[in-house]
């Protein structure tokens, strides 16, 4: 999917759409972007005569909408978003700006002006990247606009009034909605249709590409970002990715303080095709080479020092199912939640306040309520719930990490200290305790379900007729695959104890081809036949020797032209990125996280060639390779 790598840059960020427009929400949701909606309170009352051109008004309004939300979220809830997106759509005819009609007469006035003529629809968009430094909000603003020309046919008075009485014009710029009944009024459209609906998606993706994939130093003269970057292969992963990993190093945005003032001095300077600004913060150094702000609190370090408290607060609130109660009954006071879950009122209040401080809850005089992303990810029954993984982190990983010091000294797992059992014995518990098994499967399911779409679409797999997901657990990836590739038959192959417990995790309404579950041990048993084998989150569990055994087994059953898809978090060549994968290594299992070149080497050794790696930035990256004639 071509757009995906660019939008993928937003996956790990807290994205807020500062707009109440259902069309904007729909356009961004349709392309898989996950975001919170916080409608802006900015009143659209800027003095139009101050703007030289109509689009300048739309851009400034979009910017003010986004700034208002960024500031409000920072100040009111101490919950600074990473990215805030604002937009404003206007219709312009004869140099006049038309916004939403205030009543039916106003709608009639607007539609009559548009009747039989061509007009322009401008949407201004502001993308604000926020960060909080010593509790001060810092913002980098990028803005742009898109113009689409629309021509109305000659329309009769009756038709105009009939349209107005439909109620459709009232919440739309220019008094019409091209995407619904209003489409009947339109003779032609020149330009981006979605721009008329309120959000120029294509230009937005190009702007993100400029921000996240800036031209490299070497070819700055030649590289022009008028297209959206597509799949990163192993060969071309190098400089663009590494140079773009830290947003604050990018040119192409203006830096604002929380008052909305641009540090370069200019508050308004928009161009259609680019918005290159100056004004980057460079740490000042005094003569001794000591950063001048050394006496200010180092926020990153403080954040890390407090990280364990934050994690535990999240774990405990999840374990006590506080987010579930709030989803069903919120807003609730601390005393109500304490009564529901059987905890102390004072302890509950402190925990809920901590969750609010961490941005997981909203606190108002009416009580506490979940944020949108808490409803989506933290309640136990949501489709994209991470509850299973959080409970696994609390019950299994937390005790292990308590013994990290011994783990580092001894270079081995600490299961015996954390659980009084050796790792092998603990593993047997998974088979004997139904509760532990379900918890572990729920944890694996959470991650597999959340990453399934990215894994399934990282490469075009439509050429394959059959796939076998080795260690595919609950079938979360398999179900996504059959949905995306209707001609693909997918088999999940996993241990009998796992397969026996998959029914709980199956999607309730199955509109797609069913997935087949087969029990077996991929080290010992024959593998089902397939054109495409999948190993998702399997290889990092095993040391190289075991990986060789498994790969040679797959290679032996793979016919030439068949492929192997590996989904893992791929480390950079320095092995310091991404941090989640690097931190996971501290569990000291006998397996390990590997870099792109390590995966390439392992796979090539077993006759797999044309190794391509796609960095998805959503926990799991994807490696695809093909079996050649002779290993
Ligand atoms: C011209 C046209 C506009 N529109 C809509 C897009 C925008 O939602 C709306 C213009 O109003 P806006 O002020 O841009 O947006 P909004 O009020 O809907 O939301 P917010 O201010 O919270 O961001 O008109 C259509 O849906 N179809 C059309 O054909």
Descriptors for this entry?
binds thymidine-5'-triphosphate; Maf protein; 631 residues; Rossmann fold; globular; seven-stranded mixed sheet; Arc Repressor Mutant, subunit A; eight-stranded mixed sheet; 23 helices
Q: What can you see in these coordinates?
A:
The protein is α/β, with parallel strands linked by helices. The chain folds into 3 domains: 5-89 and 122-146 and 191-272, Alpha-Beta Complex (Maf protein); 299-385, Orthogonal Bundle (Arc Repressor Mutant, subunit A); 437-627, Vaccinia Virus protein VP39 (Rossmann fold, 3-Layer(aba) Sandwich). It has 23 helices and 17 strands. It has helices spanning 4-8, 22-30, 54-77, 104-114, 157-165, 193-197, 201-212, 238-244, 299-319, 322-329, 334-341, 345-357, 372-377, 387-402, 404-410, 415-419, 423-432, 434-457, 476-484, 496-499, 544-557, 579-584, 596-605, and strands spanning 15-17, 36-37, 83-93, 96-98, 118-133, 136-152, 186-190, 254-256, 361-364, 367-370, 466-470, 489-494, 516-519, 532-536, 563-568, 608-614, 621-627. The strands form 3 sheets. Strands 1, 2, 3, 4, 5, 6, 7 and 8 form an 8-stranded mixed beta sheet that branches. The protein has a 7-stranded mixed beta sheet with strand order 13-12-11-14-15-17-16, sandwiched between helices. Strand 1 (15-17), helix 2 and strand 2 (36-37) form a beta-alpha-beta unit. Helix 9 crosses helix 14. The longest helix is centred in the first third of the chain and has 24 residues, at 54-77. The relative contact order is 0.07. Mean pLDDT is 84; it is low at 217-226, 229-252 and 257-289. Thymidine-5'-triphosphate (TTP) binds next to strand 3 and helix 6. Thymidine-5'-triphosphate binds at residues 19-21, 23, 39-40, 44, 65, 87-89, 91, 100, 121, 171-174, 176-179, 182, 196-198.
């Amino acid at each position: 999917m071509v757009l995906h790598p660019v939008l993928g840059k937003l996956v790990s960020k807290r994205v807020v759409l500062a707009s109440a427009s259902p069309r904007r929400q729909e356009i961004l949701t349709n392309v898989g972007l996950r975001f919170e909606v916080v409608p802006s309170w900015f009143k659209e009352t800027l003095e139009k005569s101050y703007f030289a051109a109509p689009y300048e008004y739309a851009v400034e309004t979009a910017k003010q909408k986004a700034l208002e939300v960024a500031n409000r979220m920072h100040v009111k809830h101490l919950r600074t978003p990473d990215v805030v997106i604002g937009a404003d759509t206007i219709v312009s005819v004869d140099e006049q700006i038309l916004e939403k009609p205030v009543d039916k007469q106003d709608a009639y006035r607007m539609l009559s002006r548009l009747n039989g003529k061509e007009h322009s629809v401008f949407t201004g968009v502001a993308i604000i990247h926020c960060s909080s430094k010593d509790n001060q909000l810092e913002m980098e603003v990028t803005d742009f606009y898109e113009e689409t020309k629309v021509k109305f046919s000659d329309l009769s008075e009756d038709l105009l009034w009939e349209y107005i009485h439909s109620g459709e014009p009232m919440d739309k710029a220019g008094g019409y909605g091209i995407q619904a009944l209003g489409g009947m009024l339109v003779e032609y459209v020149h330009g981006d249709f979605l721009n008329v609906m309120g959000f120029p998606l294509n230009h937005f993706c190009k702007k993100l590409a400029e921000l996240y994939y800036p031209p490299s130093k070497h070819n700055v003269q030649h590289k022009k970002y008028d297209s959206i970057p597509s799949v990163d292969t192993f060969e071309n992963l190098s400089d663009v990715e590494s140079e773009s990993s830290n947003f604050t190093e990018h040119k192409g945005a203006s830096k604002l303080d929380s008052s909305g003032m641009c540090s370069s001095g200019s508050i308004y300077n928009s161009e259609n095709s680019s918005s290159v600004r100056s004004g980057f913060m460079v740490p000042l150094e005094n003569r001794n080479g000591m950063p001048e702000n050394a006496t200010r609190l180092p926020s990153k370090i403080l954040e890390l020092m407090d990280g364990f408290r934050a994690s535990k607060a999240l774990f405990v609130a999840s374990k006590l199912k506080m987010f579930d109660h709030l989803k069903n009954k919120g807003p609730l006071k601390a005393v109500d939640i304490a009564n529901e879950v059987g905890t102390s009122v004072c302890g509950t209040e402190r925990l809920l306040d901590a969750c609010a401080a961490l941005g997981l809850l909203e606190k108002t005089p009416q009580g506490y309520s979940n944020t949108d992303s808490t409803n989506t990810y933290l309640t136990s029954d949501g489709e994209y719930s991470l509850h299973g993984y959080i409970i696994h982190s609390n019950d299994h990983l937390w005790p292990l990490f308590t013994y990290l010091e011994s783990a580092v000294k001894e270079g081995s797992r600490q299961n015996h200290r954390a659980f009084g059992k050796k790792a092998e014995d603990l593993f047997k518990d998974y088979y004997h305790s139904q509760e532990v098994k379900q918890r572990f499967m729920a944890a694996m399911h959470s991650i597999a379900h959340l990453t399934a779409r990215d894994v399934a679409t990282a490469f075009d797999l439509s050429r394959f007729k059959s796939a076998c997901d080795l260690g595919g657990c609950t079938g979360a990836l398999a179900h996504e695959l059959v949905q995306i590739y209707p001609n693909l038959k997918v088999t999940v192959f996993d241990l009998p104890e796992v397969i026996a417990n998959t029914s709980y995790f199956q999607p309730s309404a199955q509109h797609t081809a069913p997935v087949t579950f087969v029990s077996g041990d991929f080290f010992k048993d024959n593998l089902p036949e397939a054109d495409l084998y999948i190993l998702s989150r399997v290889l990092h569990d095993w040391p190289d020797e075991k990986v060789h055994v498994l790969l040679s087994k797959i290679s032996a059953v793979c016919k030439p032209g068949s492929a192997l898809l590996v989904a893992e978090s791929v480390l950079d060549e320095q092995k310091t990125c991404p941090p989640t994968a690097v931190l996971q290594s501290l569990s000291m299992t006998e397996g390990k996280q590997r870099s792109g070149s390590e995966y390439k080497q392992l796979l090539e050794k077993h006759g797999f060639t044309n190794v391509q790696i796609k960095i998805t930035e959503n926990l799991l990256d994807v490696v695809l390779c093909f079996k050649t004639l002779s290993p």
